[in-house]
Design a protein that fits this description.
Elements: H1 24-28, E1 33-39, H2 43-59, E2 65-71, H3 83-92, E3 96-99, H4 108-118
Parallel strand pairs: 1-2, 2-3
Family: Belongs to the small GTPase superfamily. Rab family.
Pfam family, one: Ras
Region (Disordered): 121-153
Length: 153
């Protein structure tokens, strides 16, 4: 929840792997935001992140919110990408930037909150999701009477 609005994130993870590169436009077509993640302990992942940012800037919606996340901040002693280098890159490219840790959850919620604040305010989206893919699952949906008890016999 953000002020008087509920922001729903539908997350699609391409894992940045080269073998999925040709499928990536399917994921970011119609997306309002993208998070490009690199590993602060691996300079090569930062270089790949920059190429993903370039592609998003070239091919995604012009209004897309792009966030750059330097992950593994819990391993700062093994850092290969300096915070200042990534921050300068983010500033030069109008990106949100945070260092995060998936392991400790450091800044993960803050990153999503920052993205939510930058999203354009508009009418509620249909539940079919971006691009009409409609593959979402409502995790809060109650199971029908007598179902969902498969293991309690």
């Amino acid at each position: 929840c953000l002020d008087d609005t509920t922001v729903k994130f539908e997350i699609w993870d391409t894992a940045g792997q080269e073998r999925y590169h040709s499928l990536a436009p399917m994921y970011y077509r119609g997306a309002q935001a993208a998070i490009v993640v690199y590993d602060i302990t691996n300079q090569e992942t930062f270089a790949r992140a920059r190429s993903w940012v370039k592609e998003l800037q070239r091919q995604a919606s012009p209004s897309i919110v792009i966030a750059l996340a330097g992950n593994k901040a819990d391993l700062a002693s093994k850092r290969m990408v300096e915070y200042e280098e990534a921050q300068a890159y983010a500033d030069d490219n109008s990106l949100l930037f945070m260092e995060t840790s998936a392991k400790t959850a450091m800044n993960v919620n803050d990153l999503f909150l920052a993205i939510a604040k930058k999203l354009p305010k508009n009418e509620p989206q249909s539940t079919s999701g971006a691009g009409g893919r409609g593959r979402g699952v409502d995790l809060h949906e109650q199971s029908p009477q007598g179902r969902g008890q498969c293991c309690s016999n």
